[in-house]
Amino acid sequence: MVLLSEYALTPGIFNARSYSTEEVAAIRLNSLKDVLLYQGLVRNLRNGEWLETVQHDDFCLHFAGKELLKKIIKQNRLHNFPAVLANMPKTDNDWCGEALASHSKDAEKPLDGIITTLDVSENYRNNQMVSAIDKLGSASFWDPQNTSVRLNRNLCDYTRHLRLILERSNSIMFIDPHLDPTRTQYQNFIKIIELICNRKYMPLIEIHRVCYFGSGRNTQIIANEEWENRFKSSLSPICNKAGLKIKVLIWDDFHDRYLISDLMGISLLNGFDESRRTEVKTTWSRLSRNDRDDIQREFDTANHQHKLRGSFLLP
After folding, report:
1. Whether residue 125 is found in the same domain as residue 157
2. What is the pLDDT of residue 2?
3. Chain-wide mean pLDDT for the chain?
4. How far apart are CA 109 and CA 208, in angstroms?
5. Quick one: 47 and 96 in the same domain?
6. What's the rounded Cα separation, in Å, for the pair 281 and 270?
7. Domain range holding 39?
8. CA gap 88, 157 in Å, rounded
9. 145 pLDDT band (50/70/90 cuts)?
10. Contact (CB, 8 A) for 231 and 188
11. Burial of residue 312, with CB atoms counted within 10 A of its CB: 0-12 exposed, 13-18 middle, 19 or more buried
12. Which of 166, 218, 176 shows the shortest CA–CA distance to 197?
């Protein structure tokens, strides 16, 4: 499991006629909210034709489904995916086929699951990727209680868990007191930044670290000019190439490590520091919305909880 998952939903689950009563429809649709609005994305199949189908005047869109769609769109959780099959889907079964085809099209952009109606799910009983909305409790890909992951402290695991967040977020804050792209354990941080670069619209990006190096008697205050040289020598080339702008903020002191974005916040026990020991693991935990927002405010320059020692822009 990853902390941010992407799902495809067939239009039928939003159709009031797919359920025995209006009340049942509301219960089923509301059961999706905590996952989709907290730890999920929705794939807008065929470059938006999926959404057009659900919002068409002839479609019997249930009120709870309409409200859920509004929130998904408002929270930047609906993202287009190109058409894969030749023909426009006409039935919910066709849409399920389109979703499966989109899952298979790009190995680097798989779906985590497909949610459909009970009738359609019967056609895919042997496919663990597909579940009826009525039976999500037994679906292998659906875990509302999934709040943390154990991963290896290496680039491969970092990028696997960060890819969706970095490709889809509108704002990203890398908060790590020891982040220094010129140091060996952070030398692959540039590859994390590269995940952001293949986008049409670039997000707002900030990097936050402390002004010193070392600890205790070995603490050494580093001049802002030196930090600027270190970050620019490592990251400015990729920023210039991709048209990316990054604001780096140097603070007096802090200790915890996070990734904060408009889609979610993650507590990172060891930040983006890699270990050469293959057996070493770390834990990343998803933050509540309130905690994410509180941490974002903590590192706002208008909030004086920490003293800002300097800042600069990349490239």
Report:
1. no
2. 86
3. 94
4. 29
5. yes
6. 10
7. 5-138
8. 37
9. confident
10. no
11. middle
12. 166
pLDDT of 279 higher than 90? no
Cα separation, 116 vs 149, whole angstroms: 27
Split into its structural domains, the chain has a count of 2
Query: 183-210 pLDDT, tens per residue?
Result: 999 999 999 999 998 888 899 999 999 9
Distance of CA 146 to the CA centre of its chain: 14
What does the pLDDT average to over 253-267? 97
CA distance readout (Å), 6 to 10, 77, 166: 14, 9, 13
Taking CA atoms, 305 is separated from 67, 254, 290, 296, 300, in Å, by 38, 10, 18, 12, 9
pTM: 0.92
- For residue 81, with 0-12 CB atoms within 10 Å meaning exposed, 13-18 middle and 19 or more buried, which class applies? buried
For residue 200, the model assigns a pLDDT of 81
Residue 120 domain flag: yes
Distances (CA, A) of 54 to 14, 79, 84: 7, 15, 19
